[in-house]
Amino acid sequence: EAKQWFADRGHTRDELDRTDPLYGRYKGKNVVLIQLEAFQSFVVGQNIGGQEVTPNINRLMKTSLYFDNFYHQTAQGRTSDADLAANASLQPMPTGSVFTRFAQHDYDSMAKVLKMNGYQANAYHAYDGGFWNRNLMYDTLGYDHFYSKTAFNIDEPLGWSLGDKSFFKQAVSMMKTQQEPFYSFLISLSSHHPYTLPAAVQTLDVGAFKGTMFGDYLEAIHYVDAAIGEMVDELKAAGLWDQSIFLFYGDHDNSIADWQPFESFLGRPLSEADRFRILKGVPFLVHLPDDARAGTYHQVGGQLDVTPTVLHLLGIPSGGQTMIGTPLVTEQPLAGKQVVFRSGGYTDGSVLYLPSEDGLEAHSKCYSFADGKPLADSSACQAGAAEARKELQASDLVVEHDQVPAMHANAKAGTVTGTG
Ligand code: GP9
Protein backbone atom coordinates (compact mmCIF):
# COMPACT_ATOMS: atom_id res chain seq x y z
CA GLU A 1 0.00 0.00 0.00
CA ALA A 2 2.84 2.40 0.79
CA LYS A 3 4.40 1.71 -2.60
CA GLN A 4 1.11 2.36 -4.31
CA TRP A 5 0.70 5.53 -2.26
CA PHE A 6 4.05 6.90 -3.46
CA ALA A 7 3.36 5.80 -7.04
CA ASP A 8 0.05 7.69 -6.98
CA ARG A 9 1.75 10.81 -5.60
CA GLY A 10 4.38 10.49 -8.31
CA HIS A 11 1.63 10.38 -10.95
CA THR A 12 0.16 13.58 -9.52
CA ARG A 13 3.53 15.32 -9.96
CA ASP A 14 4.02 13.84 -13.44
CA GLU A 15 0.63 15.17 -14.45
CA LEU A 16 1.52 18.66 -13.17
CA ASP A 17 4.86 18.52 -14.99
CA ARG A 18 3.03 17.56 -18.19
CA THR A 19 0.37 20.25 -18.02
CA ASP A 20 1.87 23.26 -16.23
CA PRO A 21 3.51 25.91 -18.44
CA LEU A 22 6.06 26.76 -15.72
CA TYR A 23 7.59 23.28 -15.84
CA GLY A 24 11.19 23.65 -17.00
CA ARG A 25 11.00 27.44 -17.39
CA TYR A 26 14.26 27.82 -15.42
CA LYS A 27 16.15 24.82 -16.79
CA GLY A 28 19.85 24.82 -15.93
CA LYS A 29 19.72 27.66 -13.36
CA ASN A 30 21.62 27.45 -10.07
CA VAL A 31 19.62 26.83 -6.90
CA VAL A 32 20.41 28.73 -3.70
CA LEU A 33 18.23 27.52 -0.82
CA ILE A 34 18.47 28.86 2.74
CA GLN A 35 16.97 27.23 5.80
CA LEU A 36 16.39 29.98 8.37
CA GLU A 37 16.73 29.12 12.05
CA ALA A 38 13.50 29.52 14.09
CA PHE A 39 12.15 32.00 11.54
CA GLN A 40 8.36 32.22 11.81
CA SER A 41 6.12 34.05 9.38
CA PHE A 42 4.15 36.12 11.90
CA VAL A 43 7.02 38.65 11.97
CA VAL A 44 7.17 39.16 8.19
CA GLY A 45 5.86 42.54 7.11
CA GLN A 46 5.25 43.72 10.70
CA ASN A 47 6.27 47.08 12.20
CA ILE A 48 7.21 47.94 15.73
CA GLY A 49 7.28 51.58 16.84
CA GLY A 50 7.11 52.55 13.15
CA GLN A 51 10.17 50.47 12.22
CA GLU A 52 9.93 47.49 9.85
CA VAL A 53 10.97 44.21 11.48
CA THR A 54 11.87 42.63 8.11
CA PRO A 55 12.64 45.53 5.71
CA ASN A 56 14.87 43.46 3.42
CA ILE A 57 12.41 40.60 3.06
CA ASN A 58 9.63 43.14 2.49
CA ARG A 59 11.65 44.62 -0.39
CA LEU A 60 12.54 41.20 -1.81
CA MET A 61 8.87 40.17 -1.74
CA LYS A 62 8.16 42.83 -4.40
CA THR A 63 10.06 40.77 -6.98
CA SER A 64 9.44 37.28 -5.52
CA LEU A 65 6.71 34.75 -4.83
CA TYR A 66 5.83 34.69 -1.15
CA PHE A 67 3.66 31.93 0.32
CA ASP A 68 1.81 33.16 3.40
CA ASN A 69 0.12 29.83 4.23
CA PHE A 70 3.29 27.79 4.34
CA TYR A 71 3.93 25.55 7.34
CA HIS A 72 6.78 23.69 8.95
CA GLN A 73 6.25 19.96 9.35
CA THR A 74 8.89 19.18 11.96
CA ALA A 75 8.68 17.00 15.08
CA GLN A 76 11.30 16.12 17.72
CA GLY A 77 14.14 16.37 15.19
CA ARG A 78 13.56 20.14 14.87
CA THR A 79 16.17 21.65 12.48
CA SER A 80 17.10 18.22 11.14
CA ASP A 81 13.44 17.37 10.45
CA ALA A 82 13.05 20.59 8.47
CA ASP A 83 16.15 19.68 6.45
CA LEU A 84 14.78 16.18 5.74
CA ALA A 85 11.37 17.57 4.81
CA ALA A 86 12.78 20.19 2.45
CA ASN A 87 15.55 18.11 0.89
CA ALA A 88 14.05 14.60 0.81
CA SER A 89 10.32 15.44 0.86
CA LEU A 90 9.57 12.88 3.58
CA GLN A 91 7.83 13.18 6.95
CA PRO A 92 9.87 13.17 10.16
CA MET A 93 9.57 10.26 12.59
CA PRO A 94 7.12 10.45 15.52
CA THR A 95 10.11 10.19 17.88
CA GLY A 96 13.76 11.17 17.44
CA SER A 97 15.33 12.42 14.23
CA VAL A 98 15.74 10.58 10.92
CA PHE A 99 19.19 12.24 10.69
CA THR A 100 20.38 10.41 13.80
CA ARG A 101 18.28 7.23 13.62
CA PHE A 102 18.37 6.33 9.93
CA ALA A 103 21.33 8.11 8.32
CA GLN A 104 22.48 4.78 6.86
CA HIS A 105 19.28 4.40 4.81
CA ASP A 106 18.79 5.63 1.23
CA TYR A 107 16.68 8.62 0.27
CA ASP A 108 15.84 10.42 -2.92
CA SER A 109 17.07 13.95 -2.31
CA MET A 110 17.37 17.28 -4.07
CA ALA A 111 21.18 16.94 -4.09
CA LYS A 112 21.12 13.45 -5.63
CA VAL A 113 18.56 14.28 -8.30
CA LEU A 114 20.32 17.50 -9.25
CA LYS A 115 23.68 15.74 -9.43
CA MET A 116 22.18 13.21 -11.85
CA ASN A 117 21.29 16.26 -13.93
CA GLY A 118 24.74 17.82 -14.10
CA TYR A 119 24.74 19.92 -10.95
CA GLN A 120 27.27 20.23 -8.13
CA ALA A 121 25.59 20.11 -4.71
CA ASN A 122 27.06 21.61 -1.55
CA ALA A 123 25.78 22.16 1.99
CA TYR A 124 26.93 25.08 4.18
CA HIS A 125 26.48 25.45 7.93
CA ALA A 126 29.02 27.19 10.16
CA TYR A 127 28.67 24.85 13.14
CA ASP A 128 30.13 21.50 14.26
CA GLY A 129 29.78 19.05 11.38
CA GLY A 130 28.63 16.26 13.68
CA PHE A 131 25.65 18.19 15.10
CA TRP A 132 22.42 16.43 14.11
CA ASN A 133 24.68 13.79 12.52
CA ARG A 134 25.08 16.01 9.47
CA ASN A 135 28.50 14.65 8.49
CA LEU A 136 26.97 11.24 7.85
CA MET A 137 23.56 12.35 6.67
CA TYR A 138 24.95 14.76 4.08
CA ASP A 139 26.89 11.88 2.55
CA THR A 140 23.66 9.92 2.46
CA LEU A 141 21.79 12.84 0.90
CA GLY A 142 24.48 12.99 -1.79
CA TYR A 143 26.20 16.35 -1.37
CA ASP A 144 29.59 16.79 -3.01
CA HIS A 145 30.84 18.75 -0.03
CA PHE A 146 29.63 19.90 3.39
CA TYR A 147 31.24 23.19 4.44
CA SER A 148 30.90 23.08 8.24
CA LYS A 149 32.41 25.39 10.88
CA THR A 150 36.05 24.52 10.04
CA ALA A 151 35.59 25.82 6.48
CA PHE A 152 34.73 29.33 7.73
CA ASN A 153 36.79 32.17 9.15
CA ILE A 154 35.06 33.08 12.43
CA ASP A 155 35.49 36.81 11.84
CA GLU A 156 32.06 37.72 13.22
CA PRO A 157 31.62 35.63 16.37
CA LEU A 158 27.95 35.66 17.28
CA GLY A 159 25.78 33.33 19.36
CA TRP A 160 26.70 29.68 18.82
CA SER A 161 29.23 30.38 16.10
CA LEU A 162 29.67 32.69 13.13
CA GLY A 163 27.15 35.49 12.51
CA ASP A 164 24.86 34.93 9.54
CA LYS A 165 26.11 38.09 7.77
CA SER A 166 29.63 36.75 7.51
CA PHE A 167 28.37 33.18 6.98
CA PHE A 168 26.34 34.19 3.92
CA LYS A 169 29.14 36.39 2.61
CA GLN A 170 31.75 33.63 2.87
CA ALA A 171 29.37 31.07 1.37
CA VAL A 172 28.73 33.34 -1.65
CA SER A 173 32.47 33.77 -2.19
CA MET A 174 32.81 29.96 -2.26
CA MET A 175 29.96 29.75 -4.79
CA LYS A 176 31.72 32.29 -7.02
CA THR A 177 34.55 29.82 -7.65
CA GLN A 178 32.30 26.86 -8.38
CA GLN A 179 31.33 25.43 -11.69
CA GLU A 180 27.71 26.12 -12.62
CA PRO A 181 25.05 24.93 -12.37
CA PHE A 182 25.21 24.35 -8.62
CA TYR A 183 22.85 23.65 -5.76
CA SER A 184 23.81 25.47 -2.55
CA PHE A 185 21.96 24.59 0.64
CA LEU A 186 22.69 26.97 3.54
CA ILE A 187 21.55 26.66 7.15
CA SER A 188 21.55 29.87 9.17
CA LEU A 189 22.14 29.97 12.93
CA SER A 190 22.15 33.49 14.42
CA SER A 191 18.44 33.40 15.32
CA HIS A 192 18.81 30.36 17.57
CA HIS A 193 17.09 30.18 20.96
CA PRO A 194 17.52 32.07 23.36
CA TYR A 195 18.07 34.87 20.77
CA THR A 196 20.29 37.16 22.84
CA LEU A 197 22.51 39.25 20.57
CA PRO A 198 25.13 41.74 21.79
CA ALA A 199 23.78 45.30 22.21
CA ALA A 200 25.85 46.53 19.24
CA VAL A 201 23.98 44.16 16.91
CA GLN A 202 20.54 45.15 18.22
CA THR A 203 19.24 47.79 15.84
CA LEU A 204 15.50 47.43 16.32
CA ASP A 205 13.72 49.42 19.01
CA VAL A 206 11.48 46.71 20.47
CA GLY A 207 9.86 49.09 22.98
CA ALA A 208 8.04 47.28 25.79
CA PHE A 209 9.53 43.94 24.69
CA LYS A 210 13.05 45.11 25.57
CA GLY A 211 14.78 42.66 27.87
CA THR A 212 12.30 39.83 27.19
CA MET A 213 12.91 36.70 25.15
CA PHE A 214 10.25 37.84 22.69
CA GLY A 215 12.05 41.18 22.25
CA ASP A 216 15.36 39.36 21.76
CA TYR A 217 13.67 37.16 19.16
CA LEU A 218 12.53 40.24 17.19
CA GLU A 219 16.10 41.63 17.35
CA ALA A 220 17.51 38.36 16.07
CA ILE A 221 14.97 38.25 13.22
CA HIS A 222 15.85 41.84 12.32
CA TYR A 223 19.55 40.91 12.19
CA VAL A 224 18.88 37.83 9.99
CA ASP A 225 16.71 39.95 7.70
CA ALA A 226 19.66 42.35 7.26
CA ALA A 227 21.95 39.37 6.56
CA ILE A 228 19.53 38.20 3.82
CA GLY A 229 19.57 41.71 2.31
CA GLU A 230 23.38 41.69 2.23
CA MET A 231 23.44 38.22 0.71
CA VAL A 232 21.13 39.27 -2.13
CA ASP A 233 23.49 42.20 -2.85
CA GLU A 234 26.48 39.84 -2.81
CA LEU A 235 24.80 37.41 -5.20
CA LYS A 236 24.01 40.34 -7.49
CA ALA A 237 27.59 41.64 -7.34
CA ALA A 238 28.88 38.14 -8.14
CA GLY A 239 26.63 37.95 -11.23
CA LEU A 240 24.80 34.97 -9.71
CA TRP A 241 21.43 36.54 -8.89
CA ASP A 242 20.02 36.37 -12.44
CA GLN A 243 21.45 32.89 -12.88
CA SER A 244 19.89 31.38 -9.76
CA ILE A 245 16.56 30.42 -8.28
CA PHE A 246 16.83 31.85 -4.75
CA LEU A 247 14.61 30.44 -2.02
CA PHE A 248 14.31 30.47 1.73
CA TYR A 249 12.03 28.93 4.34
CA GLY A 250 11.88 28.93 8.13
CA ASP A 251 12.77 25.68 9.87
CA HIS A 252 10.54 25.66 12.95
CA ASP A 253 8.93 27.78 15.68
CA ASN A 254 10.79 29.85 18.25
CA SER A 255 9.81 27.73 21.31
CA ILE A 256 8.37 30.76 23.13
CA ALA A 257 5.52 29.14 25.02
CA ASP A 258 3.84 32.27 26.43
CA TRP A 259 1.19 33.61 24.01
CA GLN A 260 0.81 36.97 25.74
CA PRO A 261 3.67 38.72 23.87
CA PHE A 262 2.44 37.33 20.53
CA GLU A 263 -1.01 38.79 21.21
CA SER A 264 0.36 42.12 22.27
CA PHE A 265 2.75 42.27 19.25
CA LEU A 266 -0.03 41.37 16.80
CA GLY A 267 -2.59 43.52 18.65
CA ARG A 268 -5.36 40.91 18.82
CA PRO A 269 -6.43 37.91 20.90
CA LEU A 270 -5.47 34.58 19.35
CA SER A 271 -7.86 31.64 19.10
CA GLU A 272 -6.64 28.05 19.27
CA ALA A 273 -6.67 27.81 15.46
CA ASP A 274 -4.77 31.14 15.19
CA ARG A 275 -2.14 29.86 17.60
CA PHE A 276 -1.66 26.67 15.64
CA ARG A 277 -1.23 28.61 12.40
CA ILE A 278 1.28 30.96 14.05
CA LEU A 279 3.18 28.09 15.68
CA LYS A 280 3.49 26.22 12.38
CA GLY A 281 3.66 29.17 10.00
CA VAL A 282 7.07 29.82 8.48
CA PRO A 283 7.96 31.96 5.47
CA PHE A 284 8.58 30.46 2.04
CA LEU A 285 9.95 32.85 -0.55
CA VAL A 286 10.94 31.98 -4.11
CA HIS A 287 12.79 34.46 -6.28
CA LEU A 288 12.89 33.52 -9.96
CA PRO A 289 15.79 34.77 -12.09
CA ASP A 290 13.57 37.03 -14.23
CA ASP A 291 11.56 38.45 -11.27
CA ALA A 292 8.54 36.63 -12.74
CA ARG A 293 5.26 35.87 -10.96
CA ALA A 294 5.98 38.15 -7.99
CA GLY A 295 3.20 38.32 -5.43
CA THR A 296 1.78 36.85 -2.27
CA TYR A 297 0.21 33.43 -2.72
CA HIS A 298 -2.36 32.08 -0.24
CA GLN A 299 -2.44 28.43 -1.28
CA VAL A 300 -1.33 26.05 1.47
CA GLY A 301 2.08 24.39 1.32
CA GLY A 302 4.75 22.97 3.57
CA GLN A 303 8.41 22.08 3.78
CA LEU A 304 7.88 18.77 1.98
CA ASP A 305 6.98 20.78 -1.13
CA VAL A 306 10.36 22.52 -1.44
CA THR A 307 12.23 19.91 -3.52
CA PRO A 308 9.31 19.12 -5.86
CA THR A 309 8.87 22.89 -6.41
CA VAL A 310 12.53 23.33 -7.40
CA LEU A 311 12.63 20.25 -9.64
CA HIS A 312 9.44 21.40 -11.41
CA LEU A 313 10.89 24.82 -12.20
CA LEU A 314 14.10 23.24 -13.50
CA GLY A 315 12.19 20.79 -15.70
CA ILE A 316 13.47 17.70 -13.90
CA PRO A 317 10.74 15.06 -13.51
CA SER A 318 10.14 13.96 -9.92
CA GLY A 319 7.34 11.44 -10.50
CA GLY A 320 9.72 8.51 -10.11
CA GLN A 321 11.26 9.83 -6.88
CA THR A 322 10.04 8.63 -3.49
CA MET A 323 8.83 12.05 -2.42
CA ILE A 324 5.62 13.28 -0.83
CA GLY A 325 5.39 16.96 -1.73
CA THR A 326 4.01 18.66 -4.82
CA PRO A 327 5.20 21.78 -6.67
CA LEU A 328 3.86 25.06 -5.30
CA VAL A 329 5.03 27.36 -8.09
CA THR A 330 2.55 26.42 -10.80
CA GLU A 331 0.13 28.41 -12.94
CA GLN A 332 -2.81 26.90 -10.98
CA PRO A 333 -2.61 25.56 -7.40
CA LEU A 334 -3.08 21.80 -7.12
CA ALA A 335 -6.72 21.11 -6.19
CA GLY A 336 -7.31 19.27 -2.90
CA LYS A 337 -3.73 19.58 -1.72
CA GLN A 338 -3.16 18.77 1.97
CA VAL A 339 -0.33 19.83 4.26
CA VAL A 340 0.06 17.01 6.80
CA PHE A 341 1.56 17.51 10.24
CA ARG A 342 3.33 14.82 12.26
CA SER A 343 0.50 14.84 14.82
CA GLY A 344 -1.91 13.60 12.14
CA GLY A 345 -3.36 17.10 11.82
CA TYR A 346 -3.69 18.66 8.40
CA THR A 347 -4.99 21.60 6.45
CA ASP A 348 -6.17 21.81 2.87
CA GLY A 349 -6.87 25.54 2.97
CA SER A 350 -10.54 24.88 3.64
CA VAL A 351 -10.39 23.09 7.02
CA LEU A 352 -7.79 22.73 9.76
CA TYR A 353 -7.87 19.41 11.59
CA LEU A 354 -6.13 18.96 14.94
CA PRO A 355 -6.28 15.48 16.47
CA SER A 356 -6.60 15.31 20.24
CA GLU A 357 -3.57 14.43 22.32
CA ASP A 358 -5.48 11.63 24.05
CA GLY A 359 -6.08 9.99 20.66
CA LEU A 360 -9.87 10.08 21.02
CA GLU A 361 -11.48 11.10 17.75
CA ALA A 362 -14.36 12.69 19.66
CA HIS A 363 -11.86 15.16 21.19
CA SER A 364 -10.24 16.12 17.90
CA LYS A 365 -10.95 19.59 16.44
CA CYS A 366 -12.14 20.54 12.99
CA TYR A 367 -11.94 24.27 12.21
CA SER A 368 -12.83 26.43 9.28
CA PHE A 369 -9.47 27.54 7.86
CA ALA A 370 -10.84 30.93 6.81
CA ASP A 371 -11.95 32.17 10.25
CA GLY A 372 -10.56 29.57 12.68
CA LYS A 373 -14.03 28.83 14.06
CA PRO A 374 -14.86 25.22 15.02
CA LEU A 375 -17.12 23.62 12.41
CA ALA A 376 -20.50 22.47 13.66
CA ASP A 377 -20.11 19.28 11.62
CA SER A 378 -16.66 17.88 12.38
CA SER A 379 -17.16 15.07 9.86
CA ALA A 380 -15.90 17.63 7.28
CA CYS A 381 -12.37 16.73 8.43
CA GLN A 382 -12.67 12.96 8.56
CA ALA A 383 -11.85 11.93 4.99
CA GLY A 384 -8.85 14.28 5.00
CA ALA A 385 -7.70 12.93 8.37
CA ALA A 386 -7.72 9.40 6.95
CA GLU A 387 -5.62 10.61 3.99
CA ALA A 388 -3.19 12.31 6.39
CA ARG A 389 -2.76 9.03 8.29
CA LYS A 390 -2.01 7.21 5.04
CA GLU A 391 0.69 9.76 4.14
CA LEU A 392 2.36 9.39 7.54
CA GLN A 393 2.20 5.59 7.42
CA ALA A 394 3.62 5.43 3.90
CA SER A 395 6.46 7.77 4.86
CA ASP A 396 7.26 5.88 8.08
CA LEU A 397 7.39 2.52 6.29
CA VAL A 398 9.77 3.82 3.65
CA VAL A 399 12.07 5.56 6.15
CA GLU A 400 12.19 2.85 8.82
CA HIS A 401 12.54 -0.08 6.43
CA ASP A 402 14.88 1.61 3.96
CA GLN A 403 12.46 1.08 1.09
CA VAL A 404 13.53 3.84 -1.32
CA PRO A 405 15.83 1.50 -3.33
CA ALA A 406 13.00 -1.06 -3.50
CA MET A 407 10.67 1.59 -4.92
CA HIS A 408 13.11 2.24 -7.76
CA ALA A 409 13.56 -1.48 -8.38
CA ASN A 410 9.77 -1.83 -8.55
CA ALA A 411 9.45 1.05 -10.97
CA LYS A 412 12.07 -0.56 -13.26
CA ALA A 413 10.38 -3.98 -13.06
CA GLY A 414 7.11 -2.25 -13.95
CA THR A 415 8.68 -0.83 -17.10
CA VAL A 416 9.96 -4.25 -18.19
CA THR A 417 6.71 -6.10 -17.65
CA GLY A 418 4.31 -3.23 -18.30
CA THR A 419 3.00 -1.70 -21.48
CA GLY A 420 6.05 0.57 -21.88
C1 GP9 B 1 22.77 23.64 14.93
C2 GP9 B 1 21.43 24.02 14.48
C3 GP9 B 1 20.39 24.02 15.56
O1 GP9 B 1 23.62 23.07 14.01
O2 GP9 B 1 21.05 23.60 13.25
O3 GP9 B 1 19.43 23.02 15.52
P1 GP9 B 1 18.12 23.08 16.47
O4 GP9 B 1 18.59 23.15 17.89
O5 GP9 B 1 17.37 24.35 16.10
O6 GP9 B 1 17.32 21.86 16.12
Automatic annotation (TrEMBL):
Substrate binds at H192. GO terms for molecular function: metal ion binding. Its main location: membrane. Pathway: Cell wall biogenesis; lipoteichoic acid biosynthesis. Keywords: Cell membrane, Manganese, Membrane, Metal-binding, Transmembrane, Transmembrane helix. The keyword Manganese applies. It is a multi-pass membrane protein. Residues 29-316 form the Sulfatase N-terminal domain. The active site is at T79. GO terms for cellular component: plasma membrane. It is found in: Cell membrane. Mn(2+) binds at E37, T79, D251, H252. Belongs to the LTA synthase family. This is LTA synthase family protein. The chain holds residues 254 to 673 of 737 of the full protein.
